[in-house]
Specification:
With about 850 residues, the protein is an alpha+beta fold. It has 22 helices and 29 strands. Helix 2 runs antiparallel to helix 3, helix 5 packs across helix 10 and helix 8 runs antiparallel to helix 10. It is flat.
């Protein structure tokens, strides 16, 4: 791509924004060096990588955090250098980041194949991470456990240090009046004490330093010189051992130099892709549809109509030793940008533009007022083309299309992008000459104020001639101009369309809205009239204008108003559609939440039902045992066992989505003993009592009241449960226990005892009575609800349960089942 064009279109500023999203220096270098590619396949691959990364971010928080540019450290290690602890820790954190990233993407290879392929090139740790972890702490200190020798040396250093401190402490005590301060300090790595200068010689010592005033001497008493020497020698030995350990780690790193360097490039590439995705999210960008500008060989006639003249040129080229005549022509792919925004402007304030010219358009001529947005529109198109071919998503609506240009050229005459020396007419022409030498039918050419800076008549003629040459070359062209002759040229030339930027006459300000198909109006007379120019002068000026031109301006104004009205209606419809979609999504979320809550309630009810069934089955077994002992027939409880099996099957069935196919029965048609399904609980039971608008249903050993509208009759149910069976069901959770005689029946006290709000003594008395009744009723488990509060009731309850003969064990349930506010006790057998 043309380097000067990249700067003119402010492409480097895009790269600076992209760099800000990179996590480490290696990927930042890649971001600043990013260039658009002219390969269609490569550009598509880069765009697909960005799309995969955006999709990945939507389902997982992932990145290369903790990675560093370890290439200098790895090179040093490969040359035999010793890495310092911080360099080794950087290598460790980078390898850990690679490992986690590789592991995450390997699990999602089917979803993110391109990212997974790059991640496959990330390095293996080769034991380097474990080796560094064994040697270095997180603060970069060499651990005692790094080697046995180092551990021994550090123990000896500690002993020597304690012995040295002990001796120096005696000097502080015995010679306190001779010291400036009772402290121990260091000079040149040796421990000393601060001796007052007037007592010099009274303590035999080596002087290492003195204060700036000379009043204090920092001395090392001779008796501790040997201790200092010993400690210093041990410190030097420990330092050498630490260096040896670091050297061994460095050698291990250096052995894998090539793999680590290559892998870091892959990591930087992944980080760059992640940065593209983050930048796209910030811009609220979308992936463009990128077309290949393919070539095909065939005989082609180019017809160029300039004004009233029609030039027909046949382009023929002969291949060596061949009689067939052919030429290379470009199959044009038009630009289609929907709600495109300049990426360097604030998306909340910038006015988006639509560029969707008719098929076959090769040139767009934009006219409009000064400061109306012509230059920004040109830069938007050029910059978005460069971004797309760099693998960056563009700030435009989904469905926008761009050709994959082989080159982009621009001559834009604003001071921000063109040097002062090129701001004159000669400077522009020099740049245009350079561009015309390089263009072909796969180029995008952007000219701002073509032919400006000289005599208007000559400038307009020169602009038309340059445009004709560009059309003959087959390139895609965008031109901004003030020349009315170019409007006529666009209207009368095939493949060229007019475009304009609107101006609000009421506010005398540009609207920045781009309209394709209509030329711009000067609006000079209207502006002058609104600013207060006398009406006679306005009328005189109108008389100088040809009536056809006035009628044309009036017609253009009517067309523009109608298009604006249609556009506003379309925007209203689009907003209404978006609101409808948002409301639909919100309703779906609410319904999903309600359904999840329903499933949770049913799952909880099923868990309670399983407990009740277990109790009921145990009681039936007890009843059978007692009937056998009493030599009574067992047929009486067979039907009850069958019903329990059916209840158990219902409980074990998975909780599924609600079905709307069942028919709801009315309360008038319900009968005692009839089998129904409680739709709110998705559970089957038997009607045991009827009310005006509700009914009592026995579900296993649970009795629930349900509204009649929530009861669904079992299809094909003809025979209700008999009165004897109803009585048996009303016994609840097993009124006959294996701990009782056959003739005795004890009523179940229920599975739960609530002690909240009671005094401790009162609660313990009630607990004792409850446990006795629960044990007699044959319950397997009970729940004691004591609340959290200060914890006194909980402690008292659990203390009482420990010594209670009716309780085998107890535990605290999960948080979603009551947590510390509940104790579940398992009854003794």
């Amino acid at each position: 791509m043309d380097t000067k064009t990249l700067h003119v279109l402010e492409y480097p500023k895009i790269l600076e924004r992209l760099k800000a999203f990179c996590d480490f220096s290696a990927s930042m270098e890649l971001a600043l060096a990013l260039k658009p590619t002219d390969s269609h396949d490569l550009a598509l691959a880069h765009l697909a990588e960005t799309s995969e990364a955006r999709k990945l971010f939507s389902v997982q928080d992932i990145g290369v955090g903790g990675a560093h540019d370890i290439r200098p450290a790895v090179d040093l290690a490969a040359r035999g250098g010793v890495l310092d602890p911080q360099q080794l820790l950087d290598i460790k954190s980078t390898l850990i980041s690679c490992r986690e990233l590789k592991k995450s993407l390997e699990r999602r290879t089917d979803e993110f194949p391109r990212l997974a392929q790059i991640a496959a090139g990330l390095p293996e740790s080769h034991g380097i991470v474990d080796a560094i972890t064994r040697v270095l702490s997180e603060r970069g200190e060499v651990l005692d456990s790094a080697s046995p020798k180092l551990a021994t040396l550090r123990r000896e250093i500690k002993i020597a240090h304690d012995r040295l401190m002990s001796r120096l402490q005696k000097y502080l005590t015995e010679s306190a009046n001779k010291l400036q301060e009772p402290i121990i300090t260091q000079r040149d790595g040796r421990y000393v004490i601060p001796l007052r200068a007037e007592f010099k010689g009274q303590i035999k010592a080596v002087v290492h330093d003195q204060s700036s005033s000379g009043a204090t001497l920092f001395v090392e008493p001779l008796p501790i010189v040997e201790l200092n020497n010993t400690m210093r020698e041990l410190q030097l030995q420990a330092r050498d051992e630490e260096r040896r350990i670091l050297y061994e780690l460095s050698v291990q790193v250096g052995e894998h130099r090539e793999e680590l360097t290559y892998s870091l490039e892959n990591l930087a590439m992944l980080d760059l892709i992640f940065a593209k995705a983050k930048y796209a999210e910030e811009l609220r960008a979308s992936e463009p549809i990128l077309h290949s500008m393919k070539e095909e060989r065939h005989l082609h006639r180019t017809q160029v109509q300039v004004g009233k003249r029609k030039v027909i040129s046949e382009q023929l080229s002969a291949h060596a030793k061949q009689s067939e005549q052919s030429e290379i022509v470009n199959r044009q792919s038009s630009i289609k940008l929907i709600q495109a925004r300049h990426p360097l402007l604030d998306f909340q304030s910038v006015v988006p533009i639509d560029i969707d010219p008719p098929e076959g358009t090769r040139a767009i001529i934009i006219t409009g007022p000064n400061t109306g947005g012509k230059t920004v529109s040109l830069k938007t198109v050029g910059l978005l083309a460069l971004m797309a071919q760099s693998g960056l998503h563009i700030p435009a609506q989904s469905g926008s299309e761009l050709p994959c240009f082989h080159a982009v050229y621009a001559d834009i005459g604003d001071e921000q992008s063109i040097e002062q020396s090129l701001s004159t007419f000669s400077g522009h022409i020099t740049n245009i000459i350079r561009i015309l030498k390089h263009i072909d039918n796969r180029s995008l050419v952007i000219f701002d104020e073509l032919g400006a800076g000289t005599d208007p008549q000559e400038g307009a003629a020169l602009a038309r001639a340059i445009l004709s040459h560009l059309l003959e070359s087959g390139c895609t062209t965008l031109v901004a101009t003030h020349y009315p002759e170019l409007k006529t040229f666009a209207h009368s030339t095939e493949g060229v369309v007019n475009a304009s930027l609107e101006f609000d006459i009421k506010t005398l300000r540009p609207t920045y809205h781009l309209t394709i198909g209509l030329p711009g109006r000067s609006n000079a007379l209207l502006i002058a009239q609104r600013l207060g120019l006398p009406q006679p002068i306005i009328d005189s000026a109108k008389a100088e204008i040809h009536p056809d031109d006035l009628r044309a301006d009036k017609l253009l104004d009517d067309i523009r108003k109608e298009r604006n009205r249609t556009s506003r209606e379309r925007q209203k419809l689009e907003k209404a559609r978006e609101r409808l979609e948002a409301q639909t999504k919100e309703l779906e979320k609410r319904l999903e939440k309600i359904e999840d809550e329903r499933r949770d309630v049913l799952a909880k009810a099923r868990a309670e039902g399983e407990l009740e069934v277990a109790v009921l089955k145990q009681n039936i077994e007890s009843l059978k045992s007692q009937l056998k002992k009493a030599k009574q027939p067992l047929e009486a409880i067979k039907s009850l066992e069958e019903k329990i099996e059916k209840i158990e099957q219902k409980i074990e069935a998975p909780v599924e989505r609600k079905s709307d196919k069942s028919s709801v029965v009315s309360d008038q048609s319900l009968k005692l003993g009839e089998r129904v399904t409680v739709s709110t609980l998705n559970a089957e039971g038997v009607v045991t009592a009827l009310g005006e608008s509700d009914a009592e249903v026995q579900i296993g050993s649970l009795r629930v009241r349900a509204r009649s509208v929530d009861l669904v009759r079992k299809s094909g149910e003809q025979n209700p449960v008999s009165s004897d069976q109803l009585s048996a069901l009303r016994l609840g959770s097993g009124q006959v226990s294996s701990r009782q005689s056959p003739a005795v029946s004890t009523k179940s006290p229920g599975l739960e005892l609530n002690l909240r709000g009671k005094l401790v003594d009162e609660g313990l008395d009630e607990l004792e009575k409850y446990l006795e009744r629960a044990y007699s009723a044959g319950l397997l488990f009970v729940r004691i609800v004591h609340g959290k509060g200060t914890g006194k009731m909980r402690e008292a309850v659990r203390s009482a349960l420990k010594g209670n003969p009716y309780v085998a064990s107890f535990e605290e349930p999960k948080d979603n089942e009551g947590g510390a506010g509940v104790t579940v006790a398992k009854m003794a057998k």
